[in-house]
Amino acid sequence: MREEILSVGIDIGTSTTQLIFSKLIIENRASEYAVPRIDIAEKKVVYRSKIYFTPLLSQTLIDTEKVKQLISDEYRRAGISPKDLKTGAVIITGETARKQNANSVLEALSDMAGDFVVATAGPDLESVLSAKGAGADKLSEEHRDVTANIDIGGGTSNIAFFQKGELKGTCCLDIGGRLIRVEEGRITYIYPGIQKLAEKHQIRIEEGDRADEKVLYRICEYMASQLAMALYTVEEDSIHKSMYTNEGAPLPKDPKITSVTFSGGVADCVYNKEEGNIFKYGDIGVLLGKAVKNNSSLQGLKIYPAAETIRATVVGAGTHTTNVSGSTISYTDGKLPIKNIPVLKVSAEEEQEPSKFLEAIRNRLFLYKTDDETEQVAIAFSGSYHTSFQQIQELAKLIAEGAGEIIQGPYPLILVIENDIAKVLGNAVNVLLERKKDVICIDGIHAGNGDYIDIGAPVADGRVVPVVTKTLIFNT
């Protein structure tokens, strides 16, 4: 069995907006007489849009109509219709995610982008997507290395690092090329955090000042040093903790990072020498790239070329957001796709004791109530502690008892499991409920509290559903 599905990735960033279309090849990798094991075997980008400056109405508002028009034009150029798409992601990133209408923009784009496209934002996810788009995960695996990717965009720098292909941590800093903007030789905008960084080092700049290349390069050198501090290649200073986006957490100190890739719009200025007008993009991106390239602490790391630079996040969004759940799943026909379902996660400790399992579900369902009505929710757990037939029957009884409010409500009972027990468990729950309730039970998927999940329409003759797990976070 081999099937192609079409995916879209749309990235609305601080500086640029772009999209890609890619093909995901789904194959059964098991032998002829074994239980099917259906995975994504290949990912190939088949169309890359132009790169546009993100249209804004003001410093605080995205121009929704212009963004929609850009995306519509690119669909037409690619000869692709929303109905052709099976999966993908619309992601709003960097400082743009702080715009007042970010949520409504994503909703508008998600509706026009296809039946199963996730609308998502958040620095942790962005860090992972850009790193995978840059190839840092594969480099760490190939070289048995600890590799970080620094995605330096217009408003933020997202960092994710990997050890032998495994994600070890993420962080995000307010370091970016458009945090100081320049028009006609004058500074027109300074991000408050960068203003404070400059003041700490006795550099006085104000909006309206002449754009002095030497002065602005000094500020960029201090911005580059903050990135080096985030990787622990140099001791942090007194202001470093305040540089993290939304007072976020730094990277774990272990394992020690030994190599790095760079992505984002500024990365092209790190890897390549920019000629001509230093402020040709209307910001300090070229100077920041030069400062990062010349930073001695960062240069002490092994530097790998990135598979993608300015397109890393959009490639990650279009090719790395989707997993597949299949072979051992159970679902009610006609109930998929479903989108933006909040996850109620039962911890491993709670899962091991029946009373705690029941309490975990019952006590948290109130979080998903509006006007005293339980909203649609997915119950997630590992499934590692109920593997025998008898244990699965007992688990089905616990679910039927604990999820009573969902069962009495209008929405399907959705179960998301890491271990491959979904088909047996789904059948057991259906028998208990006398098949009077729609049940969707998928496995091979990890999801946590605070996550949302999208489950796509079945593909591969109904044996597989594409699944995206994400966090709908808007930096405010």
TrEMBL record:
Descriptive protein name: Ethanolamine ammonia-lyase reactivating factor EutA
GO MF terms listed in the record are: lyase activity
> What keyword terms does UniProt attach to this protein?
Lyase
Top-level taxonomic group: Bacteria
